Amino acid sequence: MSDPVEFYFDFSSPYGYLAATRISQLAGKYGRGVAWKPILLGAVFKVTGSGPLPSLPLKGPYSKRDMERSARFLAVPFKLPDPFPVSTQAPARAIYWLEQKAPGRIEACVLALYRAYFVDGRDISSPDTTADVLASLGLDRAEALAAIGEPAIKERLRSATQTAIERGVFGSPYIFVDGEPFWGSDRLDQVERWLKSGGF
Amino acid sequence: MSDPVEFYFDFSSPYGYLAATRISQLAGKYGRGVAWKPILLGAVFKVTGSGPLPSLPLKGPYSKRDMERSARFLAVPFKLPDPFPVSTQAPARAIYWLEQKAPGRIEACVLALYRAYFVDGRDISSPDTTADVLASLGLDRAEALAAIGEPAIKERLRSATQTAIERGVFGSPYIFVDGEPFWGSDRLDQVERWLKSGGF
Q: Residue B37 and residue B15: Cα distance in Å, rounded?
């Protein structure tokens, strides 16, 4: 099996959510797995000088409309949550805990956390809510909650975000296929061609 | 025939160029024409606080790669020009001159000007070069050159850009189908579905 597709994302990113619902099947079609890499876009925005979509003049109102329309276009359930965006330390750290604890459960947990926020409107910025979602998938709630507060796990998220910035990641989703970078849920067609042809 | 698809673009926008090569055929498939509306992104950026893609941290280097790859993906000839971006008053004003003079020639001129810049690397910010391109399509070179300097034409471009900003346009291409806004060459799939279904 070739190298996994690297999938950088923020749990508060609607386009990250849309792409997350599709990337695994797409990668699998070409014999690839997915390396799920949650990061904090807030740290990225400090470098780029950008900010969350809703805060941007003109782009903000358009984005809201585009997120909802893009979800309908892809037939993915979506309801813009309130509050939006939220801090995503808790769900992101939970994924890095699973990297050690139960790597085989990462994908299911990513999708469940994304659905909790973007379908059910649950505030996953709360460690308790994040732990509840993981518990609903059979993981140990208390252990998850403890992990979210653990210095080593916090450091793992910090360093993943730093590595992302060093690799040029400036948005979510941001996908690498054998080193080639693709930004945005609207690049999955190019991702597929790249997987199929090894470049173009 | 229903209302035309409104196509806002800047002549220095690679994604505007990519979409321009396809929008007419796409609209025509659904019995629509295209209303070509060149604007100045520089004026838009004053409102949004953004800037030309190459100037943006992290996004700049990615964008260059993405423009070239997106062109290959669509099999559209493309060579990132130097200098890039350039001021686009001259070609934009030429189009508003044609609106009065020869509306039937607008599309051919838009595509020829875009190709002059993004394929042949000619600096269309120069009124002389813009007039040369129009002359190569059989239009009157001296008349085109005079029009580019005419106060009424300058005002036409200013007001088109102002109207665009009032309508929420913040990038190029920016497309309206019956009032519904779509930003980016990567939204043509949604534009097509909207044309086909009258919404989704």
A: 15
Best to test chain B binding among A65, A69, A195 (most B CBs inside 10 Å): A69
Which pLDDT score, from 0 to 100, does residue B45 have? 93
Q: Phi and psi at residue B28, in whole multiples of 5°?
A: -60, -35
Specify the CATH number of the domain A5-197. 3.40.30.10
How far is the C-alpha of B12 from the C-alpha of B30, rounded, in Å?
28
Q: Which residues contact B80 (CB under 8 A, 6 or more apart)?
A: B14, B64, B67, B68, B118
Cβ–Cβ of A69/B165 closer than 8 Å?
Answer: no
Quick check: B46 contacting A, CB < 8 Å?
A: no
pLDDT at A55 over 90: no
Of B44, B57, B168, the CB nearest to A62: B168
Is residue A33 within 8 A of residue A195, CB to CB? The reply is no
Main-chain phi, psi angles of B183, to 5 degrees: -105, 130
In A, minimum Cα distance to B70 occurs at: A190
Out of B47, B62, B200, the one facing A58 most closely (by C-beta) is B47
pTM, rounded to two decimals: 0.96
